[in-house]
Amino acid sequence: MLLKKEKGCGGMAITDFLERNARLYPNEVSLVEINPANQPDHAMTWREYTLIEASTAEKYRRELTWREFDIKANRFANLLLTRGVRRGDKVGILLMNCLEWLPIYFGILKTGALAVPMNFRYTAEEIKYCLELAEVNTLVFGPEFIGRVEQVFDHLQGVKSFFYVGQSVPSFADSYDALVQYCSSIAPAVELKDEDDAAIYFSSGTTGFPKAILHAHAALVSACLTEQNHHGQSRDDVFLCIPPLYHTGAKMHWFGSLLAGSRAVLLRGVKPEWILQAVSEEKATIVWLLVPWAQDVLDAIDRGDLRLEDYRLGPWRLMHIGAQPVPPSLIRRWKEVFPEHQYDTNYGLSESIGPGCVHLGVENIRKVGAIGKAGYLWQTAIMDESGAPVAPGDVGELIVKGPGVMKCYYNNPEATAAILKDGWLYTGDMARMDEEGFIYLVDRKKDVIITGGENLYPVQIEDFLRAHPAVKDVAVIGLPDDRLGEIAAAIIQVKEGAALSEDEVTRFCLDLPRYKRPRRVIFAEVPRNPTGKIEKPKLREIYCGTRLVEAQTTK
What we know:
Shape: globular
CATH superfamily of the largest domain: ANL, N-terminal domain
């Protein structure tokens, strides 16, 4: 049940919800972290781990109460203040999902500074670029990133403080664990208002160069209200969160748990058996999946690798998917295997504070294939090139308006003006609306390939491949894939007289991060128009077929 003040967005900061939960439900569990790779005995459940050494069990499962969550956030806020972090400063977060992630995020916000979550797949150069783009002066990072941070440490402009979360602290950083325990557990006396800047997230266009997206506390609060309205989280729900917390999708879905004061489980791993085990042991009621993970679960069941009778799945009431196109056939199969589950999808962008500006709704399962209608607190429209609304059934650009629209692209007024017009956010996605008002995506203006929930930027891959001495020209497009939604395909035009094999291309691409490597290589001519631009629509026609892609997407 929402408090009276929470029915609107006025006057609240996102940290108010955490402090309320710590006050009302101090001893109830707020967050659980599970690392299945460290499970001591796979024949035991976590409830039986009291019989073994506590430190061993903790490597597998850790938890925080709401009071502990708030205290940890307060301690980190006070640590930052002692290091000179003030209102308006930017603090980067470069961590894998862990129990420390959200207390660090909220600790940053409690100082009046801005939290700047970063993609854990970023290369060293991408880390440097984003830190400097957002004008970050403090970075919190974990053991997985020591090497990448070391590569750019001497060249970073503006980053003065480094906090390391983990053991074996590198020489250039301070230990988060060692320092935070000595800081005050009392919330700092920093007044926060809903219009105050709260966070910077990163997005990118077809060039692959990230833009820094600035959001206020009001946008974060609105995400809580939208998510809780869509999925009805109550104090009895348990949310299983698997996607990375740096992404607006995972965090803004968790915001429904924050608003309801209910428990969330951070699962570090995506194996089908781990997902079902976590649902079973933690009594999860809501699970957000990406298409590959849902497909893997179904495939494991079909092969007989997983038996549903081995798990206690009764509490599981809702499975929802986002972040990439969702094949309707996948959902039909899911409903055959899990007939009692509600299903939902949400569409959104980081510029719209993540998922929810368009929402299918669990009651509209008959409309699988659509992304839905305007979400709670949101408006939608589909416009032609002249800025006029299109007729039902016609294709135009989807635009959205609501309290979660970004303030701007940080320090980029030109890019801001191109996407924000009269309060409307121009998504760059082409869509149509049916006679019942349901919206279907049909294409994307932005030349982005969404594979396994992650954005790939063709220009980056094309530029890399062009460095090969045998490559004359190259174009990268997305091809449909049942498991990943799309895969990157490289159409390579070889220089006259040169020879190049698929194996050579594969070896050449080993210097790319794994998720950026083309999954398919095609040797053919790369068509260009008279102005020199690659004719990617022609390539898609050749290799994908001419059809409308009615896809469900949350970017």
